[in-house]
Amino acid sequence: MAVAGCTKCIKYMLFFFNFIFWLAGGVILGVALWLRHDSQTSNLLILQFEGHQAPGTFYISVYILIAVGAVMMLVGFVGCYGAIQESQCLLGTFFFFLVILFACEVAAAIWGFMNKDTISKELINFYDSAYIKAVDVSGSPSKDSAIKVLDVFHKTLDCCGKGDDTPLFKQVTGTLCPTKTPEDFLRSQSCHDKLIELFSEKLYLIGLAALVVAVIMIFEMIFTMVLCCGIRNSPGVY
């Protein structure tokens, strides 16, 4: 028999939250695909220098987001169907996957917090390795390729150099940043700062999405348990 009273209200609230959860999964999947193909990050992370690929740690979090978004859409559909059909089996399956997803999200949040500076630091080190070769006045064999790598950084981030103002940097500024004028250097042109800013914005977006999803999941787990108890205690259910 169908549930009634407050339990029926919980049923439709759970359906509503599951629908929001399903939509959130689609949004997260879309955001993750955008982050994966964003021109700024893609231009930097496809670079190679002296046989080494630019660090791709950022893409790990993006691939996790893609997987989470796809799973959320599937689980959200199961939850919607289970709520409408008042199926304890489907709701139990839905609750199980919610707990797994929530645990994975907490683990990913802890990992992200502990490694929030790793992505920018790795790319800063990659930039610095090319920068050292590019300003080498002794004529390093890899100087030309280093200048090309730096050119991509400078054009993508609209920056120039590491933020220092050494005589050596002033000497090679025309080579490394031919489009920059002396007036441009009155404001910060540090590629270090621009890299930190770029990935801080991306990670903030990921963190915000994770927080919203976590709140929705908590409400869904509560409503699922209440609805399961209501179905079990309904007349005609033994």
TrEMBL record:
Transmembrane helix found in the keyword field: yes
Bilayer-crossing regions: 12-35, 56-84, 90-113, 203-227
Subcellular location per the Swiss-Prot or TrEMBL entry: Membrane
Name of protein: Tetraspanin
Keyword list, A-Z: Disulfide bond, Membrane, Transmembrane, Transmembrane helix
A single GO cellular-component term on record: plasma membrane
Superkingdom, taxonomy of origin: Eukaryota
One Pfam family recorded for the sequence: Tetraspanin
Main location group: membrane
Membrane topology recorded in Swiss-Prot or TrEMBL: Multi-pass membrane protein
Family, per entry: Belongs to the tetraspanin (TM4SF) family.
Disulphide-bonded residues: C159-C191, C160-C177
